[in-house]
Fold this protein.
Amino acid sequence: MKDCLFCKIVKGEIPSYTVYEDDLVKAFLDVNPVSNGHCLIIPKKHYENFYDVDDEILTHSRKVANKIYEMFKEKINIDGITVVQNNFYGQAIKHFHIHLIPRYENDKIDWKRQKYKRHVENIYKELIEK
Ligand code: ZN
């Protein structure tokens, strides 16, 4: 879809810290994270939200979420994970996406999305380059 930020990320027109990719979905780090390692899973095809996304994509996304959870546990030592999916109000980008928010014991989620911004590149290196 024209002018959709996430479609542009899928096409590679906008760079992303990709942590997983296959024919159906792409997962990349949120550049304004609420915790260290906050990542998004998006379908490569444009769907607006939970209510129009394909069942195949939903099932597949859960499998990908499992893979990423394992990667997080192994590489960045998380204690838990919060899975969030927003629709309509609260959905900033109108392209279906699932938030995977790593949790750490006694963590402080930063809903204003400033605190962990400067760590994104380091987290990416931890996940991908090790
Ligand atoms: Zn899109």
